[in-house]
Input
Amino acid sequence: MTPEQRYFFDLTGYLHLKGVLQGAELKAAQDAAQRYIDTPLEEVPAGLEINLEREHFNWYINAFAFDKALEALTLHPKTWPILKELTDDRPRLTSGNLMVDVHGKPFHPLHAGVPGAPARNPEQGRYSTVGGKVQCNDLVFFFYLTDVYPGDGGLIILPGSHKSHFDYPRSLFYSESYTSEGGYNAEYFSTKVPEGVLNVTPKAGDVVIISELVTHGALSWVPKDRDRRFLTLRYMQQHESVRGSLDCFSPEVKARLAPETLELAAPASFGHTKEIVARS
Ligand SMILES: O=C(O)CCC(=O)C(=O)O
Ligand SMILES: [Fe+2]
Output
Protein backbone atom coordinates (compact mmCIF):
# COMPACT_ATOMS: atom_id res chain seq x y z
CA MET A 1 0.00 0.00 0.00
CA THR A 2 1.31 3.44 -0.78
CA PRO A 3 1.38 6.04 2.00
CA GLU A 4 -1.35 7.89 0.09
CA GLN A 5 -3.59 4.82 -0.06
CA ARG A 6 -2.98 4.01 3.61
CA TYR A 7 -3.82 7.55 4.69
CA PHE A 8 -6.91 7.80 2.49
CA PHE A 9 -8.29 4.42 3.56
CA ASP A 10 -7.70 5.16 7.22
CA LEU A 11 -9.32 8.57 6.90
CA THR A 12 -12.37 7.60 4.84
CA GLY A 13 -12.88 3.82 5.13
CA TYR A 14 -12.70 3.26 1.39
CA LEU A 15 -10.33 3.22 -1.60
CA HIS A 16 -11.17 3.66 -5.27
CA LEU A 17 -8.52 2.00 -7.46
CA LYS A 18 -8.80 2.99 -11.10
CA GLY A 19 -8.09 0.75 -14.08
CA VAL A 20 -7.12 -2.38 -12.13
CA LEU A 21 -8.49 -4.53 -14.95
CA GLN A 22 -7.80 -3.51 -18.52
CA GLY A 23 -7.90 -4.89 -22.05
CA ALA A 24 -8.16 -8.66 -22.42
CA GLU A 25 -8.27 -9.24 -18.66
CA LEU A 26 -11.30 -6.97 -18.23
CA LYS A 27 -12.98 -8.43 -21.31
CA ALA A 28 -12.48 -11.99 -20.02
CA ALA A 29 -14.09 -11.09 -16.67
CA GLN A 30 -16.99 -9.27 -18.38
CA ASP A 31 -17.55 -12.18 -20.77
CA ALA A 32 -17.51 -14.68 -17.90
CA ALA A 33 -20.09 -12.60 -16.00
CA GLN A 34 -22.26 -12.48 -19.12
CA ARG A 35 -22.04 -16.26 -19.50
CA TYR A 36 -23.21 -16.74 -15.91
CA ILE A 37 -26.05 -14.24 -16.42
CA ASP A 38 -27.09 -16.06 -19.60
CA THR A 39 -27.01 -19.52 -17.99
CA PRO A 40 -30.49 -21.11 -17.92
CA LEU A 41 -31.51 -21.67 -14.28
CA GLU A 42 -31.58 -25.46 -14.70
CA GLU A 43 -28.01 -25.46 -16.06
CA VAL A 44 -26.38 -23.50 -13.22
CA PRO A 45 -23.52 -25.65 -11.86
CA ALA A 46 -23.99 -27.34 -8.47
CA GLY A 47 -23.04 -25.05 -5.60
CA LEU A 48 -23.85 -21.92 -7.62
CA GLU A 49 -27.24 -20.22 -7.75
CA ILE A 50 -29.00 -17.46 -9.63
CA ASN A 51 -31.38 -15.56 -7.37
CA LEU A 52 -33.47 -12.93 -9.14
CA GLU A 53 -35.96 -12.56 -6.28
CA ARG A 54 -33.81 -10.89 -3.65
CA GLU A 55 -34.16 -7.19 -2.95
CA HIS A 56 -31.62 -4.67 -4.29
CA PHE A 57 -29.84 -6.86 -6.86
CA ASN A 58 -29.98 -9.89 -9.06
CA TRP A 59 -27.60 -12.28 -7.32
CA TYR A 60 -25.23 -14.68 -9.05
CA ILE A 61 -24.01 -16.65 -6.07
CA ASN A 62 -20.39 -17.87 -5.97
CA ALA A 63 -19.63 -16.24 -9.32
CA PHE A 64 -15.94 -16.28 -8.48
CA ALA A 65 -16.12 -20.08 -8.86
CA PHE A 66 -18.04 -19.91 -12.15
CA ASP A 67 -15.07 -19.12 -14.36
CA LYS A 68 -11.28 -18.92 -14.00
CA ALA A 69 -11.32 -15.29 -15.21
CA LEU A 70 -13.40 -14.37 -12.14
CA GLU A 71 -11.56 -16.70 -9.75
CA ALA A 72 -8.31 -14.94 -10.72
CA LEU A 73 -9.65 -11.66 -9.28
CA THR A 74 -9.60 -13.11 -5.76
CA LEU A 75 -5.78 -12.99 -5.85
CA HIS A 76 -5.30 -10.18 -8.33
CA PRO A 77 -1.68 -8.87 -8.29
CA LYS A 78 -2.85 -5.24 -8.02
CA THR A 79 -5.16 -5.78 -5.05
CA TRP A 80 -3.13 -8.52 -3.34
CA PRO A 81 -0.62 -6.21 -1.57
CA ILE A 82 -3.50 -4.11 -0.24
CA LEU A 83 -5.42 -7.17 0.91
CA LYS A 84 -2.33 -8.52 2.65
CA GLU A 85 -1.70 -5.27 4.48
CA LEU A 86 -5.30 -4.68 5.54
CA THR A 87 -5.58 -8.23 6.93
CA ASP A 88 -2.11 -8.13 8.47
CA ASP A 89 -0.97 -10.99 6.18
CA ARG A 90 -3.89 -13.17 7.30
CA PRO A 91 -6.31 -13.01 4.35
CA ARG A 92 -9.29 -15.27 3.97
CA LEU A 93 -11.89 -15.15 1.20
CA THR A 94 -15.37 -15.67 2.62
CA SER A 95 -17.71 -14.83 -0.27
CA GLY A 96 -17.64 -13.95 -3.99
CA ASN A 97 -20.98 -13.13 -5.59
CA LEU A 98 -21.75 -11.18 -8.75
CA MET A 99 -24.36 -8.50 -8.16
CA VAL A 100 -26.36 -6.94 -10.96
CA ASP A 101 -28.25 -3.78 -10.07
CA VAL A 102 -31.05 -2.97 -12.50
CA HIS A 103 -33.55 -0.15 -12.86
CA GLY A 104 -36.56 -0.79 -10.61
CA LYS A 105 -34.73 -2.42 -7.69
CA PRO A 106 -35.32 -0.45 -4.47
CA PHE A 107 -32.86 1.81 -2.72
CA HIS A 108 -30.33 -0.08 -0.60
CA PRO A 109 -30.48 1.65 2.78
CA LEU A 110 -27.36 2.85 4.55
CA HIS A 111 -25.94 0.08 6.72
CA ALA A 112 -22.69 -1.22 8.13
CA GLY A 113 -21.78 -4.86 8.56
CA VAL A 114 -21.51 -4.60 12.27
CA PRO A 115 -23.95 -2.41 14.16
CA GLY A 116 -23.16 -1.55 17.74
CA ALA A 117 -19.97 -1.28 19.70
CA PRO A 118 -17.39 -4.01 18.97
CA ALA A 119 -16.79 -4.51 22.68
CA ARG A 120 -20.21 -6.11 22.97
CA ASN A 121 -19.41 -8.97 20.63
CA PRO A 122 -15.87 -10.16 19.93
CA GLU A 123 -16.99 -11.60 16.58
CA GLN A 124 -17.99 -8.19 15.29
CA GLY A 125 -15.85 -6.36 12.77
CA ARG A 126 -12.87 -4.45 14.02
CA TYR A 127 -10.87 -1.60 12.63
CA SER A 128 -7.64 -0.42 14.18
CA THR A 129 -4.07 0.49 13.37
CA VAL A 130 -1.10 -1.43 14.71
CA GLY A 131 2.52 -0.53 14.05
CA GLY A 132 1.59 2.15 11.53
CA LYS A 133 -0.63 -0.20 9.52
CA VAL A 134 -4.36 -0.56 9.27
CA GLN A 135 -5.87 -3.80 10.49
CA CYS A 136 -9.38 -4.56 9.43
CA ASN A 137 -11.09 -7.92 9.82
CA ASP A 138 -14.06 -7.32 7.55
CA LEU A 139 -13.37 -6.07 4.01
CA VAL A 140 -15.25 -5.88 0.73
CA PHE A 141 -13.55 -5.56 -2.67
CA PHE A 142 -15.99 -4.56 -5.43
CA PHE A 143 -14.58 -5.37 -8.90
CA TYR A 144 -16.59 -3.27 -11.35
CA LEU A 145 -17.41 -4.79 -14.74
CA THR A 146 -19.59 -1.94 -16.04
CA ASP A 147 -19.36 1.88 -15.98
CA VAL A 148 -21.11 4.11 -13.47
CA TYR A 149 -21.52 7.80 -14.30
CA PRO A 150 -22.54 10.66 -11.99
CA GLY A 151 -26.33 10.68 -11.89
CA ASP A 152 -26.64 6.92 -12.50
CA GLY A 153 -27.02 6.02 -8.81
CA GLY A 154 -25.12 3.15 -7.17
CA LEU A 155 -22.75 2.95 -4.22
CA ILE A 156 -22.99 5.56 -1.46
CA ILE A 157 -20.67 5.87 1.52
CA LEU A 158 -20.48 7.96 4.68
CA PRO A 159 -16.72 8.64 4.62
CA GLY A 160 -15.10 8.23 8.03
CA SER A 161 -18.03 6.35 9.56
CA HIS A 162 -15.95 3.18 10.09
CA LYS A 163 -14.35 5.01 13.02
CA SER A 164 -17.52 6.58 14.37
CA HIS A 165 -18.05 6.28 18.11
CA PHE A 166 -21.80 6.26 17.74
CA ASP A 167 -24.38 4.07 16.03
CA TYR A 168 -25.68 5.52 12.78
CA PRO A 169 -28.99 7.31 13.45
CA ARG A 170 -31.29 6.10 10.69
CA SER A 171 -33.21 9.35 10.75
CA LEU A 172 -30.14 11.31 9.54
CA PHE A 173 -30.26 10.47 5.81
CA TYR A 174 -33.00 8.77 3.73
CA SER A 175 -35.15 8.45 6.86
CA GLU A 176 -37.95 6.69 4.95
CA SER A 177 -35.64 3.93 3.70
CA TYR A 178 -36.25 1.83 6.82
CA THR A 179 -39.71 0.73 7.94
CA SER A 180 -40.99 1.58 11.42
CA GLU A 181 -40.17 -2.05 12.40
CA GLY A 182 -36.54 -1.47 11.41
CA GLY A 183 -36.51 -3.46 8.17
CA TYR A 184 -35.57 -2.24 4.70
CA ASN A 185 -38.42 -0.38 3.00
CA ALA A 186 -38.77 -2.12 -0.39
CA GLU A 187 -41.03 0.70 -1.62
CA TYR A 188 -38.37 3.38 -1.15
CA PHE A 189 -36.44 4.85 -4.07
CA SER A 190 -33.94 7.71 -3.98
CA THR A 191 -31.20 9.17 -6.13
CA LYS A 192 -30.44 12.10 -3.82
CA VAL A 193 -26.94 12.70 -2.51
CA PRO A 194 -27.30 14.88 0.60
CA GLU A 195 -24.31 16.74 2.04
CA GLY A 196 -22.12 14.27 3.94
CA VAL A 197 -22.97 11.33 1.66
CA LEU A 198 -20.56 10.35 -1.14
CA ASN A 199 -21.70 8.62 -4.34
CA VAL A 200 -18.78 6.62 -5.80
CA THR A 201 -18.91 6.24 -9.59
CA PRO A 202 -16.39 3.57 -10.70
CA LYS A 203 -15.76 2.61 -14.30
CA ALA A 204 -15.43 -0.92 -15.65
CA GLY A 205 -12.10 -2.29 -14.43
CA ASP A 206 -12.02 -0.16 -11.27
CA VAL A 207 -12.01 -1.68 -7.80
CA VAL A 208 -13.63 -0.09 -4.77
CA ILE A 209 -12.42 -1.40 -1.42
CA ILE A 210 -14.41 -0.70 1.74
CA SER A 211 -14.19 -1.67 5.34
CA GLU A 212 -17.55 -3.33 5.99
CA LEU A 213 -17.65 -1.05 9.03
CA VAL A 214 -18.03 2.05 6.89
CA THR A 215 -21.71 2.97 6.61
CA HIS A 216 -22.72 2.40 2.99
CA GLY A 217 -25.65 1.59 0.71
CA ALA A 218 -26.79 2.19 -2.84
CA LEU A 219 -28.95 4.75 -4.62
CA SER A 220 -31.67 3.46 -6.89
CA TRP A 221 -30.22 2.65 -10.32
CA VAL A 222 -31.39 5.24 -12.85
CA PRO A 223 -30.44 3.99 -16.37
CA LYS A 224 -32.94 1.70 -18.04
CA ASP A 225 -30.60 0.62 -20.84
CA ARG A 226 -27.57 -0.29 -18.68
CA ASP A 227 -27.12 -2.25 -15.47
CA ARG A 228 -24.44 -2.08 -12.75
CA ARG A 229 -22.36 -5.25 -12.48
CA PHE A 230 -19.68 -5.98 -9.95
CA LEU A 231 -18.03 -8.99 -8.37
CA THR A 232 -18.20 -8.59 -4.59
CA LEU A 233 -15.28 -10.31 -2.88
CA ARG A 234 -15.47 -10.40 0.91
CA TYR A 235 -12.44 -11.06 3.01
CA MET A 236 -11.83 -11.46 6.71
CA GLN A 237 -8.78 -12.36 8.73
CA GLN A 238 -8.01 -16.09 8.57
CA HIS A 239 -8.58 -16.72 12.28
CA GLU A 240 -12.04 -15.14 12.35
CA SER A 241 -14.96 -17.53 12.62
CA VAL A 242 -17.09 -15.52 10.12
CA ARG A 243 -19.85 -15.13 12.64
CA GLY A 244 -20.21 -18.76 13.51
CA SER A 245 -19.40 -20.38 10.17
CA LEU A 246 -16.01 -21.99 9.73
CA ASP A 247 -16.67 -23.23 6.21
CA CYS A 248 -18.00 -20.67 3.77
CA PHE A 249 -18.06 -22.79 0.60
CA SER A 250 -19.71 -26.10 -0.22
CA PRO A 251 -17.76 -29.15 -1.46
CA GLU A 252 -19.22 -28.49 -4.95
CA VAL A 253 -17.80 -24.95 -4.98
CA LYS A 254 -14.45 -26.04 -3.58
CA ALA A 255 -14.13 -28.75 -6.24
CA ARG A 256 -14.05 -25.99 -8.88
CA LEU A 257 -11.23 -23.98 -7.26
CA ALA A 258 -7.47 -23.94 -7.79
CA PRO A 259 -5.29 -24.98 -4.82
CA GLU A 260 -4.22 -21.38 -4.15
CA THR A 261 -7.84 -20.16 -4.06
CA LEU A 262 -8.69 -22.98 -1.67
CA GLU A 263 -5.86 -21.86 0.56
CA LEU A 264 -7.08 -18.26 0.37
CA ALA A 265 -10.56 -19.41 1.44
CA ALA A 266 -9.32 -21.64 4.25
CA PRO A 267 -9.55 -20.67 7.91
CA ALA A 268 -6.24 -20.83 9.78
CA SER A 269 -4.89 -20.03 13.20
CA PHE A 270 -3.63 -16.55 14.00
CA GLY A 271 0.02 -17.68 13.99
CA HIS A 272 -0.09 -19.60 10.71
CA THR A 273 1.41 -18.11 7.53
CA LYS A 274 -0.36 -19.21 4.37
CA GLU A 275 1.83 -20.38 1.45
CA ILE A 276 0.26 -17.76 -0.81
CA VAL A 277 1.38 -15.10 1.66
CA ALA A 278 4.86 -16.53 2.27
CA ARG A 279 5.74 -16.71 -1.42
CA SER A 280 4.79 -13.11 -2.25
O1 LIG B 1 -24.67 -1.69 -4.08
C1 LIG B 1 -23.56 -1.48 -3.59
O2 LIG B 1 -22.67 -0.97 -4.25
C2 LIG B 1 -23.32 -1.85 -2.14
C3 LIG B 1 -23.49 -3.31 -1.89
C4 LIG B 1 -23.36 -3.67 -0.46
O3 LIG B 1 -23.78 -2.98 0.42
C5 LIG B 1 -22.64 -4.89 -0.08
O4 LIG B 1 -22.38 -5.74 -0.95
O5 LIG B 1 -22.28 -5.03 1.11
FE1 LIG C 1 -23.09 -3.77 2.42
Notes: Residues 215 and 279 are 35 Å apart (CA to CA). The chain has a mean pLDDT of 92. The chain has one domain: 3-278. The first helix runs from residue 3 to 12.
